[in-house]
Amino acid sequence: MASPGSSPGSTPMMELTGAPNVAHIFVVFGASGDLAKRKIYPCLWLLYRDGLLPPGTKFLGYARSVMTTEDLRARITPFLKVGSGDQEMKENFLKTCTYMPGSYTDGAAFEKLNAEMSRLEDEMAPEQPANRIFYLALPPQIFMAVTANVKKACMSTTGYNRVIVEKPFGMDSSSSAVLSNHLSSLFVEDQIYRIDHYLGKEMVQNLLVLRFANTVFTPAWSRSAIQSVMITFKEPFGLRGRASYFHDVGIIRDVMQNHLLQLLCLIAMEKPASTSPDDIRDEKVKVLKCMSPITPDEVVTGQYVADPNGEGESAVGFREDPGCPPDSKQCTYAAAVGWVRNERWDGVPFILKCGKALDERKAEIRIQFRPVAGDIFGGRCQRNEFVIRVQPKEAVYMKMMVKRPGRDTGMFESEMDLSYHLRYKDLNLPDAYEKLIQDVFLGNQMNFVRSDELAEAWRVFTPLLHHIEGHQIEPIKYQFGVRGLPEADTLAAKVGHHYSGTYSWSTPHL
Ligand code: NDP
Ligand code: BG6
């Protein structure tokens, strides 16, 4: 398995392919569901196609829906990306995908599941060790029953057992603690893989390298040079059939408390002692421990309403969505300011913004530097910004002042630009889930959330969530398709972030 010191992103292929006599089973709980169909099977297929899984691995789908293996194959096939030469391989992949229906709560059903796994393992590698991975693509209310049944009836006694869980990991500190205690009563931390799929994204994984493999950033990466850090997530669509989930959860739990907070940790953390998963996670936990809970006076919440001129989805407001109560006060937009009270970051606001039904799809980190001291250019210098665009069109750019080329003695804002699609030909970045599932096979927990990290993340957000829900705070209404909330811009300005509106960018001459 992955050596703890292996470089981030490296793929120790020998470790995957070097154990031909070990059987591997990947069980997908909730195989009839949306996540399984849209993400998990397509990623398993790509890993299979590219030879990145142990040879002979079998994929066993399990869910309550009464359907056959053929039904499952027909269900997932349209979601498998198949190139011209891949047809035969796809057929082989599908042959390794089987399905069995069963209850999530009945112990006897899990004994049958165990018998089926043993049968498949005997087919693969008779009398040899067997490794089992269980993916819980399930609603949280059945996590506990399923994991308890897995522990009781389905553990391999000859190889490893790994359990992958999807968020939400609870609704607040106490419910998350109940879930964590439950899981830790069944499994050791090394067996639990809590997915935050943002940690599998290329530019997120790049943060470690950008920060700690470039001396140029070392002296600048602190309160002495940085004015503010803004982390933004935007989506141009609404609920897409997830109204009832979203009404319960809201954007703060859905995106801010996990994806955005993870980005904050990677930006703020100190250099880890090594690239081993625990050294990195130790540093992330230290960042969270230095954060005080987010306070309601530094938060703006919003809820989208229909665009009166909109068509299709944009003509439907959050409260009008079938599945959402018409008086829901749940927020679909939030901006909040976090403070990391340590020597490096004291006084630097970390502005987190996220929202659905906005003008564009975007996730980015914007590090804004302090104004030039002792300015000799008559106030014409704009602040430098270092932007890491996570998606779409991955890019890293530094906005900076330069002299206008030629005889002109003036200056203007330009950029040092590393746009991946321009710089790297035929770029084909793996999906985040693909990378993370591969990491589970490799036993590399670097990009999974540890229980202490999770507890700290909830500590930062629980008082705010209780305040919003306890006081039934009415979110500010915003129209489907807007850029963001002006109140959020005001909040960002209040804590020191400056938007000049003077920068313009055009695609470089090629
Ligand atoms: P800008 O200075 O134009 O904008 C910075 C951010 O400020 C925006 O993303 C927006 O964030 C926010 N903003 C916009 N209007 C207001 C407002 N009225 N008040 C407060 N905040 C506001 O710089 P960018 O870095 O965004 O660059 C502009 C464009 O150039 C972008 O589309 C960028 O992708 C592109 N570009 C592309 C590069 C590349 O492909 N490599 C390199 C450089 C630039 P939000 O909407 O999130 O609130
Ligand atoms: C999920 C959220 O975790 O992330 C969704 O539950 C959101 O609401 C999604 O749409 C965004 O992921 P990505 O990878 O498309 O940015």
Characterization of the model:
With 510 residues, the protein is α/β, with parallel strands linked by helices. It contains 14 helices and 15 strands. The chain has helices at 13-17, 34-49, 69-76, 87-96, 107-124, 143-153, 173-186, 202-212, 243-268, 277-289, 420-423, 432-442, 451-470, 486-494, and strands at residues 23-29, 58-63, 97-101, 130-136, 161-165, 192-194, 226-234, 299-305, 333-339, 349-355, 362-369, 385-391, 395-403, 411-419, 476-479. The strands form two sheets. Strands 14-13-12-11-7-10-9-8-15 form a nine-stranded mixed beta sheet, with helices on both faces. A six-stranded parallel beta sheet has the order 3-2-1-4-5-6, sandwiched between helices. α9 (243-268) crosses α13. The longest helix is centred in the middle third of the chain and has 26 residues, at 243-268. The chain binds NADPH dihydro-nicotinamide-adenine-dinucleotide phosphate and 6-O-phosphono-beta-D-glucopyranose. The site of 6-O-phosphono-beta-D-glucopyranose (BG6) has 5 residues, from α9.
Brief account:
Helices cover 35% and strands 20% of the residues. By secondary structure, the chain is of the alpha/beta class.
Quickly list its features.
single chain, 510 residues, alpha/beta, 9-stranded mixed sheet, 6-stranded parallel sheet, 14 helices, 15 strands, 35% helix, 20% strand, globular, disordered N terminus, binds NADPH dihydro-nicotinamide-adenine-dinucleotide phosphate, binds 6-O-phosphono-beta-D-glucopyranose
